[in-house]
Specification:
By secondary structure, this protein is an alpha+beta fold. Helix content is 32%, strand content 22%.
């Protein structure tokens, strides 16, 4: 499958700008207590955005909801748990449910020149979710795209910085859909944070939703590629 789109305006993301947008993103996350942070590895200069949260699985789907779903598909529904709870509180509050611990990472892909969403999920006893369980957990409105090509949407591979198995949203079409989004923003002369636009689009596919306040974020200074870069820490 070809990942290039002929005739598109160049909206590839340089790593320098990726870090600037991440810095802006983290600053707002800290202001609203959304839990995102910047992490680095010991032996490498590269870093990534990271967030950990909990969600409750509801395998006992109500009858009226079952009628609306595909008869051949058993979907696992995830419900977010209050972010401020720690592991022990989550286990106590949701003792009758299955609680999933999600860890999301946003990395820069130098090959595709776009951000990539890596994530892993496990039960509180440490048992990881399988790829099949992840596919079944995708929201119904995204199932059609997933069924067309699951391996082009969500797959499993080694984390490029940690060397551990992670699920990943394939970045092949990121440049295509982001070019359309950014073209519209440019025509309206609106400031746009690439990470916010991208993550608010792909995140919900795997249960990651951004608070609406991110959409209202305004820059304190110009974020174009020629600006002086401030290091993330």
């Amino acid at each position: 499958m070809s990942c290039s789109v002929a005739g598109e305006e160049d909206f590839f993301l340089e790593e320098k700008r990726f870090k600037r947008y991440c810095e802006e993103f983290i600053k707002h996350s800290q202001q609203i207590g959304d839990g995102w942070e910047w992490r680095t590895t010991k032996d490498l200069d590269d870093g990534y955005l990271s967030k950990t949260c909990f969600q409750v699985t509801n395998r006992n789907i109500p009858p009226d909801l079952k009628k609306k779903s595909d008869d051949n598909t058993e979907q696992t529904l995830f419900t977010p748990v209050e972010e401020s709870l720690d592991d022990s509180q989550v286990a106590g509050v949701c003792a009758t449910e299955e609680v999933i611990r999600f860890e999301y990472h946003v990395l820069y892909s130098s090959s595709y020149q776009v951000p990539v969403l890596y994530f892993r999920a496990c039960f509180l006893d440490g048992r990881p979710l399988t790829l099949d369980e992840i596919w079944r957990s995708v929201h119904a409105c995204y199932q059609a795209r997933l069924l067309e090509g699951p391996w082009d949407t969500i797959t499993q591979q080694e984390h490029p910085l940690l060397g551990q198995p992670f699920f990943v949203l394939h970045p092949c079409r990121t440049h295509e859909f982001m070019s359309a989004v950014l073209t519209g923003s440019r025509r309206q002369n609106r400031h746009t944070n690439y990470i916010i636009l991208w993550l608010s689009t792909v995140g919900p596919v795997v249960g990651l939703n951004l608070p609406l306040s991110y959409a209202k974020l305004s820059p304190e200074q110009d974020t174009n590629a020629d600006s002086v870069e401030r290091p993330l820490s």
